[in-house]
Amino acid sequence: MTRYRVAVHIVPRKGVLDPQGKAVADALH
Question: In angstroms, rounded to a whole number, what is the distance separating the alpha carbons of residues 29 and 21?
């Protein structure tokens, strides 16, 4: 679960603009 938490914190800021980050955010949500 630690990896998911870290990704959640990194994805929202820098990943939001990236297609990869967006896909990850959607998968987590």
Answer: 12
| pLDDT 10s digits, 1-29 | 566 666 566 655 555 566 666 666 676 66
Neighbours of 22 (CB within 10 A): 13
10 within 8 A of 28, measured Cβ to Cβ: no
Output the pTM of the full model. Answer: 0.24
Helical spans, DSSP H, in the chain: 2-10, 19-28
Angle between helices 19-28 and 2-10 (to 10 degrees): 130
For 29, which DSSP code? -
